[in-house]
Write a structure and sequence with these properties.
6-stranded mixed sheet, CN hydrolase domain-containing protein, 322 residues, Nitrilase/N-carbamoyl-D-aminoacid amidohydrolase, alpha/beta
């Protein structure tokens, strides 16, 4: 009798624990189902990625951007992504600082009007925004919606101060102030994570955008050098897509801008599995490539490979010293 009573006393907490586990399991399934149904309810969105060769002429660059925007809108694109320094690439040190403007200045207002007239969202990576003083600018990624409103902006955090082997010395911080804020924003194309060029080499930024800011699409407007692009461009982009299970839209500068500067090109769009789903026919031409962003694919990849549930970094990893 005592043995039966003891067994019965054990079975109660075991049954309670089992029931609690079942409830938790059902809750996880329900959250996934709700998330999947809400994401898949949205139709795939057509997006475009631009490749261009900006020069030291604001009007000429705007003419190129305007033409590509109108062509993309006519092709059904709802969101068009331009590369870093889309509006101006100078040939002399400090030239861009003199042209830097606030985001409500006339240069950006032209692009706001372009977005509104074309009924299209624009990602404008690497605008020369007026900095904290007259000697500095910000390298700013600007997001404009289809009504012509600046929806969000991100100031590049990681500045390109390097001596590229076989190339030249770059010192972006000489005229550019670094940003200090991670930016993600909701849009009709999913939750967008904003970055710029050299940020690509710092995976912790992309991990933060995915796991702390719930990004689904990561934007990487760039002007990679020819040397670094040949070595690392595609592999870094595909790695960021795989690690975060996000779409990547990477608009790139291409070709020779002047006697001193040349960019690698190769504008591409990558899906959450790490597959390149759009790119231009070559690395030098000016134009755009198109793909459909389907957020149900983001959810499918994350459900089948649930790294967010397996991730230990925030709660387990601890630093140690000897």
């Amino acid at each position: 009798m005592a043995l039966v009573s003891f067994a019965a006393s054990l079975s109660l907490p075991i049954a309670v624990a089992a029931a609690a586990a079942a409830v938790r399991s059902r809750a996880v399934v329900l959250r996934r189902a709700m998330s999947s149904s809400s994401v898949s309810a949205a139709a795939p969105a057509r997006v475009g990625v631009v490749q261009m060769t900006s020069v030291g002429d604001i009007d000429a660059n705007y003419a190129t951007c305007s033409r590509l925007t109108k062509e993309a809108a006519a092709a059904g694109v709802k969101f068009l992504c331009f590369p870093e320094v889309f509006s101006f690439i100078g040939s002399k040190d400090g030239e861009s600082v003199k042209l830097a403007e606030p985001l409500d200045g006339p240069i950006m207002q032209r692009y706001c009007s372009l977005a509104s007239e074309s009924s299209i969202w624009l990602s404008l990576g690497g605008f020369q925004e007026k900095g904290p003083d007259d000697s500095q600018q910000y390298n700013t990624h600007v997001l404009i919606d289809d009504s012509g409103k600046v929806r969000s902006s991100y100031r590049k955090i990681h500045l390109f101060d390097v001596d590229v082997p076989g190339n030249m010395v770059y010192k972006e911080s000489r005229f550019t102030a670094a940003g200090d804020t991670v930016v993600a924003v909701d849009s009709p194309f999913g939750r967008l994570g904003l970055t710029v060029c050299y940020d690509l080499r710092f995976p912790e930024l992309y991990q933060c955008l995915r796991f702390k800011h719930q990004a689904q699409v990561l934007l990487v407007p760039s002007a990679f050098t020819k040397v670094t692009g040949e070595a690392h461009w595609e592999i870094l982009l595909r790695a960021r897509a795989i690690e975060t299970q996000c779409y990547i839209i990477a608009a790139a500068q291409a070709g020779k801008h002047n006697e001193k500067r040349e960019s690698y090109g190769d504008s591409i769009i990558i899906d959450p599995w790490g597959t390149v789903i759009a790119r231009l026919a070559d690395r030098l031409s000016t134009g755009f490539s198109v793909a459909d962003i389907d957020l149900s694919k983001v959810e499918a990849v994350r459900t089948k490979m649930p790294i967010a549930e397996h991730r230990k970094f925030d709660s387990v990893w601890k630093s140690s010293s000897l």
